[in-house]
Amino acid sequence: MKKRKRKLKMKGITYILTIIFTLCILGIGYLGYTLIFKDNHKAIFLETIERNNYANIDYYAIYGIHMNLKGSFTLEEDVNDLVLVLKNENEEITIPWELEQNNQNYTFTTSEYINEGIVLENIPIGEYYLLIKTIGTDENNEEVIKYYSLQNQTTYNDLEYYTLTKDNKNNKIDIEWNTYEEIPTLRFTIKETTLPDDVYDITIDPGHGGSDPGKTACSDGSVTNSLGYCNSGNLISESNQNLQVALQLKEDLENLGYKVILTRETDERISIYDPYGSATTANDTKSKLNIAIHHNSSGVGTVKGLEVYIANDTNLDFASLFVDEITTLANTATSTKQLYRVSDGIYQRFFTEEEILEDDVQPSNKTTETIYYYYLREVGGISTHATNDGRYIPTYSKNEHYNSNNTAESYLFELGYMDNYSDLLNIMQNTSGYAEGLATAISKYLAQEE
Ligand SMILES: [Zn+2]
Q1: 329 CB contacts (<8 Å, ≥6 apart)?
Q2: What CATH number is attached to the domain comprising 366?
Q3: 16 Cα to the center of ligand 1, angstroms
Q4: Domain of 110?
């Protein structure tokens, strides 16, 4: 009996050793395959890139979930077609662009809008190169395909991007300027990752707080007295209303699976430009979106309704979704205000000549194409022409992201007018409706872009 047992044991050990041996052979084989054949395929693909003629990239930036590039190149031969592609040895993804030709000179941009361009969320796992593909014909009328690479002419370097959390998963994208045998390349490497603790999907910024209540109103619609108190009804502060909507929105977005951070979670005063301030948290946490929440007051009581403020060079797709969802789910209407209006419920405010002359630092670095609200201008870095380069110290500290080409897409909401009684009643009673409208627009926008 004893002997037999031992024999069985020996058999077991031999069995396990055979499995380990087989796995080792398979492992070595796979390693050999990847080293020789896979890298060989990649090398063969990279060898197809043209040498000594590259497109010059003089601008590139990530804003929200989009990346944009601008550049130029020269082509001596005539071609039938030109496309921008993300390519590797197996796949080729066409990237939309706007191309202008002037004889042999070409200029291009991936979009005229900062919130359009290469959708970073969409790129499958893998390693890709951004290339210009030309399709021409030779003297025998045979098709000739050529690939041209890109050369960095900016002072900016590599970028890293974390995709939005989906089913508890994230990808990390490394966008790197490299060379392959003297050919300059722009390489996108997409890998599955675990989101670092300090990286978030969305930042919500409830305006004001602490010693700064923002706008105020009395709950029965009466006006505050000269000391700022209500003779009847309760004092309603904008800072608290902003916070209530923000807390509800955070919960709604978290229920949709997103990782969300608030610039404040209590009634406290926070800085604008210091780390984790109102203008910096979104970029300190690599958030893709920044949602600034406010309530308004006109001083006359007749103006009412929702206003969504957008940055410069922004297409209206996302803002329109916000307008549609908030007016429906919060049972409100778009604002009656005409000033700065670009579309129903959508507003865009730039500095005026007079305001530029009143800037604390002269000559001012603002122009009439600079966005007025810091929530939009400073959060967007170079995409939104941020201006706080440290010149306002000691009044404000420097915006550490003012010169960044990797920033959050930002919207400013004036959800309603606290000095209009019908708006005020809705603001007080329908916090969840406003939050639901915001959350629904965000999820719809991100879903259609994926
Ligand atoms: Zn406000």
Answers
A1: 433, 434, 436, 437, 440
A2: 3.40.630.40
A3: 69
A4: 55-193
- Tell me the CA–centroid distance for residue 286 and ligand 1, in Å: 24
Do the Cβ atoms of 410 and 375 come closer than 8 Å? yes
Amino acid at 126: G
CA 122 to chain centre: 13
pTM: 0.90
| 106 strand-pairing partners | 73, 101
Q: In angstroms, what CA-CA distances link 280 with 169, 262, 271?
A: 25, 12, 9
pLDDT in the model for residue 1: 45
Contact (Cβ atoms closer than 8 angstroms) between residue 248 and residue 222: no
Do 227 and 312 share a domain, yes or no?
A: yes
Q: What are phi and psi of 381, to 5 degrees?
A: 55, -135
| Tokens representing residue 180 in the block | 């392959």
Q: Which pair of structure tokens corresponds to residue 59?
A: 């601008």
CA 169 vs CA 120, 172, 446: distances in Å: 15, 10, 15
Among residues 418, 409, 449, 414, the alpha carbon closest in space to that of 434 is found at 414
Number of domains in the chain: 2
Q: Are residues 402 and 273 in the same domain?
A: yes
- How far is the centre of ligand 1, averaged over its atoms, from the C-alpha of 365 (Å)? 25
Please work out, in degrees rounded to the nearest 5, the angle formed at the alpha carbon of residue 240 by the alpha carbons of 234 and 242.
Answer: 130
Ligand 1 centre distance from Cα of residue 245 (Å): 13
Instruction: Quick: pLDDT tens for 358-411.
Output: 999 999 999 999 999 999 999 999 999 999 999 999 999 999 999 999 999 999
> How are beta strands 346-347 and 307-309 bridged, if at all?
parallel
Alpha-carbon distances of 33 from 41, 135, 372, rounded to whole Å: 11, 33, 58
Distance 18 CA to ligand 1 centre (A): 71
